[in-house]
Design goal:
Blueprint (H helix, E strand, L loop, with lengths): L3 H15 L2 H18 L10 H24 L3 H15 L8 H15 L7 H11 L6 H12 L1
Helix pairs in contact: 1-2, 2-4, 3-4, 5-6, 5-7, 6-7
Amino acid sequence: MDSIFDQVSRGIREAMKAHDKVRLEALRNAKKVFLEAKTAPGANDTLPDDKAMKILQKLVKQGEESADIYTKASRQELAEGELAQVNVYKEFLPKPLTEEQIEATVKDIIVQTGAEGMKDMGKVMGMATKQMAGKADGKVISTIVRKLLA
């Protein structure tokens, strides 16, 4: 299977052929950030998929925050542009877990660790964020862990 870097590169070519400006701009931006990460000191000109995923998640978060700012400033056309790019990035990320799936995973972790209250939150959060990396937002995980440990 192709790496995320290769998939993005192929997506750029396809977007150019299809004259899809939004997709092209989003993918070129992602590739620029990927190349910066590949050439960073210590990266040895490689970009593992887990790092590429973290970069895409960061781009999604930044895009959503920008769209929120534009919406508050009554600049809907700019917000829509940001969200269109966010949707392109999301295509390369795993499907997010539902709250029910997150809660089930957290319950399993609580049983595994023998957590008995808020004093064990750090232990549970550490395992939960590692297990659900890229599939769940940290704030959602934290809220569910708090609810179950309370």
